[in-house]
Amino acid sequence: MTIKILSAKEFATKLKATIQASGRLGFTGETAIALNLKAGKFAKFAKDDENGALYLIIINESSEDAFSIRESSGYFYVPTKVMFDTLGYDYENNTIMFDLVRQISLDKDLQGQVYFMKQRQTRNKDKKNDIIEP
User: Fold this and answer.
1) For the chain, how big is the Rg over CA atoms in Å?
2) Are 132 and 94 in contact (CB under 8 A)?
3) Residue 82 contacts by C-beta under 8 Å, 6 or more apart in sequence?
4) CA 22 – CA 127 distance, rounded (Å)
5) Closest residue by Cα to residue 103 from 85, 115, 118
6) What is the mean pLDDT of each run of 10 residues along the chain (134 residues)?
């Protein structure tokens, strides 16, 4: 039997990303630090066709499947408008946020640092506090 201590440090930071009104995927400052985001890094996305789960994969080298991670005034984002439009995300009428959950077991198969993108969505207009199921 192997028993591992679960460190509170590993669970102290809530990693979050939000689809901006422009279609970009933006990261909170805390998340950018935790993911070690910087110019010269890249992001790939994977989708599980069985359950629709979306994954973010942070990689260090460019690839034809990867988006460049960009920085503007210390704010990090990925230019994902066309991808989210194609996937049917209605970020213009809703605020779509993702809690990022580390998936170390998928790193080798997906060749990067993998995060499950757990979606949370609220309406933008009159119903700001209504949570919509993904």
Assistant:
1) 15
2) yes
3) 23
4) 21
5) 115
6) 75 84 94 92 95 95 94 93 95 92 94 94 60 50
Which helix (H) or strand (E) segment holds residue 118: the answer is strand 113-123
Q: What is the pLDDT of residue 13?
A: 62
Whether this prediction's pTM lies above 0.85 is answered by no
Q: Are 43 and 20 in contact (CB under 8 A)?
A: no
- Sign of the Cα pseudo-torsion (126, 128, 129, 133, in order): positive
The structure tokens listed for 76 are 């990090």
Helix or strand holding residue 71 (H, E): strand 70-72
Query: Which tokens go with 100?
Result: 């990022």
Q: In whole angstroms, what is the distance from residue 94 CA to residue 2 CA?
A: 44
**pLDDT score at 127:** 46
